[in-house]
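Retry 2 of 3 after timeout on previous attempt. Resubmitting structure tokens to design endpoint.
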């Protein structure tokens, strides 16, 4: 059992491609900030080398917009760093534009469609309260 949890919560009313896209983007944010959760490279029987991945499972949950806003505020209140994706980022085409549109919102008015964090599992459970396993 891991002492920590790597959690991604996506808004439940997104299209399937949006959920996958948001999950992928958010996971890269956590991986970039938490190098210790990344394992060793993989090598197959033909000696081909593949990129390393997370050493622990990534829990993917879903929630409505109101619950996502609560999750974001709980993470902030507990000082848990996170990756956040807001709905307006779907309209941009590159990283600089994503950061520009993101900077226009605060926790009080952001249209959060996804959040990811990695923290102690008990704290993670408290932060993600109300979210459910993604179907």
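Retry 2 succeeded. Sequence:
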């Amino acid at each position: 059992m891991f002492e920590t949890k790597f959690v991604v919560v996506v808004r439940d009313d997104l299209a399937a491609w949006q959920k996958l896209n948001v999950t992928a983007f958010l996971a890269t944010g956590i991986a970039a900030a938490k190098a210790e959760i990344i394992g060793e490279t993989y090598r197959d029987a033909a000696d081909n080398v593949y990129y390393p991945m997370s050493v622990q499972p990534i829990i993917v949950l879903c929630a409505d917009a109101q619950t996502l806003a609560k999750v974001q505020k709980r993470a902030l209140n507990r000082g848990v760093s996170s990756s956040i994706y807001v709905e307006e980022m779907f309209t941009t085409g590159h990283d600089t534009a994503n950061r520009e549109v993101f900077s226009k919102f605060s926790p009080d008015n952001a249209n959060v469609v996804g959040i990811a964090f990695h923290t102690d599992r008990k704290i993670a459970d408290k932060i993600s309260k109300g979210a459910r396993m993604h179907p």
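Attempt log closed. Helices lie at 16-33, 65-77, 95-102, 121-127.
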